[in-house]
């Protein structure tokens, strides 16, 4: 399923100019929305969420929503509310000790209900996709899945069945929306707080991009901006405690024997604020990703998404598409 998803995302533009065009187009809608407030203060959470979600939706469902569409607002609410609950102390305890869920009350029940409503909406889109399906002109991920589903009939739908499709779309939709939107809002906050850094980023943007549309290929020519975006992800630390993982084989770690299947909860905050890897771990310091000549350098302790095999999951690849999004708002 991972192979199918990554292949389909590539077909619909991941890592190409197609997705860049989708991002640029959506950012035009976003900037028009921001301009409509005419300089007055406004709460930007739902707008940012909507812009990011629309880019993902265009790949999954083949269209975008208006920011005020009631159904779209409801879907955004379900995702935001679920993520808020998932970040609560009680649900984080359930993630660490899942066996407690069956006995103790808490937000996990609301998360399950929200997930059901989101899955129901995705299921409702299936008939329309089936009716308009053209095997030779697949417009989105759902239609591509249906083509594979037809090809797999001889296998009794072992992998390409509707339940897997609903979970796949939900994972891609929910995983990429809130985290990316939150990172962009952190970008705005930190650029306001550190105007000197903002000025350097702006100067680099004007020098390299000018009046052109931002493209991923500009990245290698913008080491300072690249370092700032990496430092935003490190400093904001929006996923301090990740979802439970499991060891894939027996392993010995620092004298402890961990059998295959042992649950492991990555504490990403402990890595992103590690003094041995970051000179000023508690400060916003883009030089963490620059060498003495001002060239961008990678840091092995930079793990803003997760650790382990999940880093190769489709949702993580979707998150990485948004390198150019903060540039459009600079």
UniProtKB/TrEMBL annotation:
**Superkingdom of this protein's organism:** Eukaryota
Protein's organism:
Hymenochirus boettgeri
Write the record's keywords in alphabetical order, separated by commas. Endoplasmic reticulum, Heme, Iron, Membrane, Metal-binding, Microsome, Monooxygenase, Oxidoreductase
Q: How does it sit in the membrane?
A: Peripheral membrane protein
- GO MF terms on file? heme binding; iron ion binding; oxidoreductase activity, acting on paired donors, with incorporation or reduction of molecular oxygen, reduced flavin or flavoprotein as one donor, and incorporation of one atom of oxygen
* InterPro entries in the record: Cyt_P450 (IPR001128), Cyt_P450_E_grp-I (IPR002401), Cyt_P450_sf (IPR036396), Cytochrome_P450_fam2 (IPR050182)
Q: Which family does it belong to?
A: Belongs to the cytochrome P450 family.
Subcellular localization(s) per the UniProt record: Endoplasmic reticulum membrane; Microsome membrane
Per the record, the GO terms for biological process are:
organic acid metabolic process; xenobiotic metabolic process
Q: What is the protein name given in its UniProt record?
A: Uncharacterized protein
Q: Which cofactor does it need?
A: heme
């Amino acid at each position: 399923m991972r192979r199918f998803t990554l292949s389909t995302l590539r077909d619909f533009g991941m890592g190409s100019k197609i997705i860049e065009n989708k991002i640029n187009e959506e950012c035009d809608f976003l900037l028009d929305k921001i301009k409509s407030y005419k300089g007055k203060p406004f709460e930007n959470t739902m707008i940012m969420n909507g812009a990011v979600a629309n880019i993902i939706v265009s790949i999954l469902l083949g269209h975008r929503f208006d920011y005020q569409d009631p159904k779209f607002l409801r879907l955004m609410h379900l995702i935001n509310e679920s993520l808020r609950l998932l970040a609560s102390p009680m649900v984080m305890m359930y993630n660490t000790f899942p066996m407690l869920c069956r006995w103790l009350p808490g937000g996990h029940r609301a998360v399950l209900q929200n997930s059901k409503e989101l899955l129901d909406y995705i299921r409702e889109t299936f008939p329309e996709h089936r009716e308009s399906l053209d095997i030779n002109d697949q417009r989105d991920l759902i239609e591509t899945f249906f083509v594979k589903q037809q090809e797999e009939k001889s296998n009794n739908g072992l992998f390409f069945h509707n339940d897997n499709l609903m979970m796949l779309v939900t994972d891609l939709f929910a995983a990429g929306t809130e985290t990316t939107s939150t990172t962009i809002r952190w970008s705005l906050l930190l650029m306001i707080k550190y105007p000197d850094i903002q000025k350097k980023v702006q100067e680099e943007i004007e020098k390299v991009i000018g009046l052109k549309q931002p493209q991923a290929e500009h990245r290698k020519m913008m080491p300072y901006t690249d370092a700032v975006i990496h430092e935003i992800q490190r400093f904001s630390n929006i996923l301090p405690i990740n979802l439970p993982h499991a060891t894939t084989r027996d392993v010995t770690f620092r004298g402890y024997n961990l059998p295959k299947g042992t649950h492991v909860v990555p504490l990403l905050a402990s890595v992103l604020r590690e003094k041995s890897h970051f000179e000023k771990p508690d400060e916003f310091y883009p030089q963490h990703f620059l060498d003495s000549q001002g060239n961008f350098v990678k840091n092995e302790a930079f793990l803003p998404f997760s650790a382990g095999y999940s880093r190769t999951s489709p949702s993580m690849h979707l998150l990485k598409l948004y390198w150019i999004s903060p540039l459009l708002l600079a």
